[in-house]
Amino acid sequence: MEHKVDPVSTPSPSGRAGVGRPSFAIYDASAGSGKTYALVKEYLKIILVAPKNDAYRNILAITFTNKAVHEMKSRIVGSLSEFAKDEPSKKAEDLMQDLAKDTALSIIQIKTKSQQIIKHIIHNYAAFDISTIDKFTHKVIRAFAHDLKLPMTFEVTLDTENLLIEAVDAIIAQAGEDETLTKLLIDFTMEKTDDDKSWDISREILDTGRLVLNENHRSEITHFQDKSIADFVEIKKKLIESCKVLEKDNAEFAQAALTLIENNGIDLKSFSRGTFPNHLISIRDGKYNPKNKTFHEFDDIAINKTAKDRALIENIIPELIQILGTIYKNFEKRDFYKAFLRNITPLSLLNTVSNELAKIQEEQNVLSISEFNAIIHREIQNQPAPFIYERLGERYRHFFIDEFQDTSEMQWQNLIPLIDNALAGQDDYGEKGTLMIVGDPKQSIYRWRGGKAEQFIELSKDNNPFANPDKKLEHLDKNYRSYSQVIEFNNEFFKLLSSEFEQPDYKDLYENHSHQKTNDKSGGYVNISFIPKVETIEEDEEGLDKTELFVLATLNTIQKVLQEGFEYKDIVILTRKRSQGIAIANYLTEQNIPLLSSETLMIQNATEVRLIIHLLKYLKNNADLEAKAHFLHYIAKNIQDQLSVHDFIAKGMEQKLEADFEKWLMSYDISLSFQNIRKKSLYEAVEVIVAKFILPPAPSEGGGDSVEILGGNTNEVVINHNTISGKKGFMTGGNYSHLLIEKAIAHRKEPTVAEKILWDELKEQSLGSKFRQQHLIDNYIVDFVCLSKKLIVEVDGEYHFTEEQIVLDQERTTVLNSLGYKVIRFLNEEVVSSISKVLDTIRNVLEEQQQTLELNNDKLFNSANKSKDLVNTQSPSPSGRAGVGNAYVQYFLDIVLERDVRNQAGIADFLNFWDKNAEKFSIPSPEGNNAVRIMTIHKSKGLEFPVVIMPFAEEDYSRKPKDKLWLDGEEMDFGLPKVLVDNSSAVEGFGVEAKAIYDQKKQEELLDNVNVLYVALTRAEEQLYVISNMNLSSKGEVPKNNMATFFINYLMSKGVFDENKLDYEFGSATKLSNKAKHIDTSKAIRVVAEILNPKNIKIAQREALMWGTYQQESIEYGNVVHEILSFVKTKKDVELAVTKSIESGLITLNQKELVHKTIQDIVNHQELQSFFSEEHEVLNEQTIIQKEGKTIKPDRMVVTKGKEVFLLDYKTGAHDAKYQKQLENYQSAIELMGYKVVKKALIYIGKEIDVVNL
């Protein structure tokens, strides 16, 4: 959307932009105020009035994301192109009028100049310099690599985390070789063990390593560069000794105070409740508790009213207070030392980690992107004319910095010399250099990577780092994005929040600089709602937990918005944490809501990519049964059709020897040599797998020309509202779970003895996690499951030792593992005789699962396999079969090729790499699709959406990651100017200066959290929905340090809050915007194969057989009709089913009439009327999992409302008694589920139709 803003400067009399513009212009641009319009306009002014057509060569525009770069380039080039047209667009005409007014150029001059400039840019596009700041820094470093003593061929890596992990692993590997390091690591391990923490020290060392690469800590870390491990060991000894001395001194001081009281003949009972002397005694005995009352003033020491020695006490109180003052100072110092001691061991490894990092980067010829700014910063320090910018400084005369609040301090300091050089002089035409920075400190949300709001705030005041004093500040305070109701809500809300701040600048920021003027879009809607209170319910019931309530409220909001006339693509759901987005995506996917998010398009979730990984694992180790089972599962579902999935996997697992396995696969037309694949390079090996299993499209899928899939399907359902019982949150089921729900309920009521014993323990949540009993996961009933930790607990009887059951259990476990669940099993006897041991095992596995989930939340997502509205990028198909142009596979092949070429990686190396990095890769999110978007608030920055929904608006902003504080260490006399301590409330007790640092940190954290909230609430154009949780105390008190408090306080300020009311509306929910209905214009691009794969000819071969000999003709014809009937539910479906079979190549157009007549004869057969009635529910080829784990798949079941079933099966060839037996087995299984089979029949399909009623 184009926005108009007032120009910073008046038109230049000479027509030159530089004359009228200030040298240093700062645009304070609140959300939606048209900052991009302002940037583009100022950029165009410079190039349009310049004497030459290549003035863009002298302009450097910097922003922070590739998307922002693309937008700015597109806006500039697009504007010039429109100006050059005979009939520009209305927006372009308005912009031309503004430019004409500011530059004194005529419309004809602007049009002519634009034609010349656009032609020049096209021929010199590389000089059109708009880039990210990282790309610019990289270009500088690359140009001066030799001067900076860097290898000329270095590669940039974004993967700093893995570099750190390698460095930490290398350090720990040195244990046993370096004596000093070994002792340090052992001591650290013992300290952690003594504190009842995990002995694994790698996490703490890794956290320390992150300090090395974090710009926020670089200035403090420089103080430790000359310190060795031995130096730190010595400091540690001194600290321990100092703590002992301070405690000893305090005991003596306390005794001296007690002696003073005694020598004055004062009765200890004269002190009120004996509080004061008891305080001294606790200090003397080493039992001092800092949380107890302390004594600093005369009146703090309470004396009994009846005390006869009051005068004596009052006489010595000043001396007692003085003694206690010394004691408290000593305790402050001791606590300070102890806090430092907790961090000194990992801190002592700073240089070791730093050196190891440098060594690894040198060996791998890579440079971490986090090093860029530090390298330049080191070179430009104390150099008035730094050589690193000597060429660039002459080229660039004008600078634009977008999103300045995200510029780190070091990045800004590095740019100052370059910009100062340009601002200080003039070019050959007498034009001075200029700088325009645009930003909004209220949208500063990247403090963790160096972006600080304070930097922009200081520049907005009196700070000017340049010699040129010509500086001007402009506030863009009109919102062009949102409707008036949204703007007015944010104005009131954030002004109210300003009272939360104590820091003057932060308070001023929201009190005086958050108000925005409205535009001509009147109306809009804001809704603040709260989820119902989570009630404790009876043990047999399963209510909704808090997360489930949030996702349910989100779904209800989407449905409400759709009813108002909005489309899916108009809606965005913003969350603070990725895990919250995952929870919502899981549920909405199950509810068939089309979704788009980067997480749903992750490469590792594609069925085909998982196949490749599992096969690579098998190639690495053919004893990996799990990998083999997954490989077989893929083939069973997507390639072979002779056996059921279960039977195919079971038979494949029986092939123990690799040669036997290959021979067995040959019987299914799968020809490959595992050993030959192992001999190939990594990329060649993957290419073979792709060619063998992925490239050939399944005939029934029409050759895989185009598969339109929505990313984000998951096999787990957070809440299912369609259970037979109608109870929300009852199960986590798959496609056929509705057939098993009654069975699960029955199992709950009739547990075995062992199950009852274990459930009695688990339901009390004694292990700290909620378990569910006899729960449906996909199409299995599991004994117990903890959904939050993805852990399944099975209790088995003796029959599980049978050979057949072992195979079934293995298949069941494989499927559950593929859904992300860990399965552990116990025997009945174990549970009955050793319940404590069983609970300990479960507790340990729960802890392991928690760590796994924290490391990789993304694994909750599975491949996109259901919806078909989105992503014309050959996503995984519903069957798991890839189309010819599967985007996931193409991206995966690119990754494999890069690893193969760059690292000469083998299969084992690549699998190790993939385990660590799989979650980082996703295909680009397609634009313009009609789907709800889910993204984190950070990713939404700079974007706008018609409707914004923000669930989980109840974050406790006082809870933060484990960060650290640097405190002044000069007074310690240990040679360390700075010391590192944990950021906790204990810091307040370390003295006045430490408390000031702690308080400032708390204010910074509050600002960062309010800024995140500001970004979220200002994304909405027309409607804004906030879903929070009151979380009131039993006394009705508002929670402290919680985001929900902000909304409750706002509602109170409006006088509308009622703790019994959950929904609050501002404005009208009626849709006001009139945007065009969504039209999907995306097109699938077919991949042209270089060779003809023989497997593609199979359809023609099948047709030839079908119409060959009489016997074969009858069987094949029956099979074809059978397959078409699977798509027929009622008589009305026949025409469409036959048409689809022609399109898919199953039959030809010439065969249509015969096939159509046969199917019509079946559906209209006099004896089969009840089987094709439109009154009942029809289930075609639905899998049923039996109690013992076996699966059956009747061809057709017709289910009445009275739970009566008509059972039908299609057969070909001669009549056989085994078919009757099979149908009777189906009947038994169905009736065990609580249904009644009232009629069953076999239909033999050949040249004639033969119905056999049983």
TrEMBL record:
CDD domains tied to this protein: Endonuclease_DUF559
Residue ranges of every copy of the UvrD-like helicase C-terminal domain listed in the record: 484-942
Catalyzed reactions: ATP + H2O = ADP + phosphate + H(+); Couples ATP hydrolysis with the unwinding of duplex DNA by translocating in the 3'-5' direction
Domain of life: Bacteria
Domain UvrD-like helicase ATP-binding: 8-483
E.C. number: 5.6.2.4
Keyword DNA-binding: yes
Alphabetic keyword roster: ATP-binding, DNA damage, DNA repair, DNA-binding, Exonuclease, Helicase, Hydrolase, Isomerase, Nuclease, Nucleotide-binding
Record's GO cellular component terms: cytosol
Binding site for ATP: A29, S30, A31, G32, S33, G34, K35, T36
GO MF, any single term: ATP binding
Keyword RNA-binding annotated: no
GO BP field: recombinational repair
Protein name in the entry: DNA 3'-5' helicase
Species per Swiss-Prot/TrEMBL record: Flavobacterium frigoris
